[in-house]
Specification:
Oligomer: single chain
Bound molecules: pyridoxal-5'-phosphate
Distance between the termini: 28 Å
Number of strands: 12
Helix content: 25-40%
Shape: globular
Largest sheet: 7 strands, mixed
Radius of gyration: 21 Å
Order of helices and strands: HHEHEHEHEHEEEEEHHHEEHHEH
Length: 375
């Protein structure tokens, strides 16, 4: 039987044709195609905020932190249960990533724990839209107001969802998407920063092109900068026309992908809502486009269940190992909820081409395994 994949890049003929068009036009770097992708993202999100595309979601987060003027001596509060990218993006600026615990219901930053870790050096909080959910964001903004912090939303999972009736990305301070190959839409690799802070957006536009001031504006007119100034640290983080061409085609498919992910998620929820030995997260499923489908497997059975699924040709994942347990980000304190979840979380296959038959197979293997354990 064919392997049932945990996640998958879903790209096709349209993306191939779009890449061919860029190759034929002969300009692969950053130019008109990136400008169009940024404009189309704004239209898609129904926002007049600034949208700045870069070459990865990690680069988006890194430049967002830097553009807020955060660096050595500063601290950024971040949930420990996230992709290592969130942590590396913070420490890349020289700032300290302060690991916080998460809530058991939504694996979202635990603000009571974050409160204990606020110091005079705290400058920002980076909540992660875990499994695409951001229903607790109003609480994060209250918390940030109260402590005078900026907010960088790691929305790498969350593209296409809504919060309080508005597309994710239209409200808030600084928000970062990822268009990595397996995210809700992809540009091959890629990411974007969305903000209404024009200074922050301009700093990011410059920093993605080695800090060359206003190079973006030149490149969008098909020109280059031969004489310029540089006033900040910059990187080669720009998005290429090739990537943007893929992203533009994916944007046309975004709603279809979203429905597919939502339909498959609904089926998982129906199957698993009241099963002994396993629980689902309490997410805003009516409004999100789930990037991953995560369950908690109780009584120490997670590893055995995932090994059994693998034997049955079903891939699973664990999102994520707590960052405070890796050497580079290790803490002197414990984060008990995240450490408990680390032994329980299991991500089941979910992507825009997961078929009903494949999903039925996943559900049946999980239920029969748990049935035997509980018998
Ligand atoms: C994917 C991801 C990122 C980084 O995005 P890349 O495009 O892979 O660099 C950051 N945070 C989270 C939670 C992610 O899942």
């Amino acid at each position: 039987m064919a392997l049932i994949r945990l996640s998958k890049s879903v790209v096709g003929e349209e993306e191939k044709a779009a890449i061919a068009r860029v190759i034929d036009a002969g300009y692969l770097g950053m130019g008109r195609e990136v400008q169009l992708f940024e404009e189309e993202l704004r239209t898609h999100l129904r926002t007049d905020k600034q949208v700045v595309c870069v070459n990865t979601g990690t680069a988006a987060l890194h430049l967002a932190v830097q553009a807020l003027g955060i660096g050595p001596g500063d601290e950024v509060l971040v949930p420990t249960t996230t992709y290592v990218a969130s942590f590396q993006a913070i420490t890349a600026t020289g700032a300290k990533a302060v690991a916080c615990d998460v809530t058991p219901e939504r694996v979202f930053i635990d603000l009571a724990d974050a409160e204990r870790r606020v110091t005079a050096r705290s400058r920002a909080v980076m909540p992660v839209h875990y499994a695409s959910d951001s229903s607790d964001m109003p609480l994060v903004y209250d918390f940030a107001d109260c402590h005078g912090l900026r907010v960088i939303e790691d929305a790498a999972h969350a593209f296409g969802g809504t919060r309080a009736g508005r597309p994710i990305g239209t409200a808030g301070d600084v928000l970062c998407f990822s268009f990595d190959g397996i995210k809700n839409i992809t540009s091959g690799e890629g990411g974007a920063v969305v903000t209404s802070d024009e200074l922050v957006a301009q700093r990011i536009r410059d920093a993605r092109l080695l800090g060359v001031e206003k190079d973006t504006e030149k490149r969008y007119q098909g020109e280059r900068s031969w004489a310029f100034d540089v006033r900040h640290q910059g990187y080669r983080y720009h998005m290429s026309n090739l990537m943007a061409a893929i992203g533009r085609e994916q944007l046309k498919k975004a709603e279809r992908f979203a429905r597919h992910r939502q339909d498959r998620t609904r089926c998982y929820l129906e199957a698993f809502r009241s099963v002994d030995g396993l629980s689902v997260l309490d997410l805003d499923f009516a409004n999100i486009v789930p990037h991953i489908f995560v369950v908690r497997v109780h009584d120490g059975h997670r590893d055995a269940l995932s090994a059994h699924l693998r034997e049955m040709d079903i891939e699973t994942g664990v999102h994520y190992m707590p960052n405070h347990l890796v050497e580079y980000f290790s803490t002197r304190y414990r984060l008990p909820v995240a450490e408990q979840l680390w032994s329980e979380l299991l991500s089941l296959p979910l992507h825009a081409e997961l078929t009903e038959q494949e999903q039925a197979q996943v559900i049946s293997v999980v239920l029969s395994y748990l049935g035997r354990r509980n018998a």
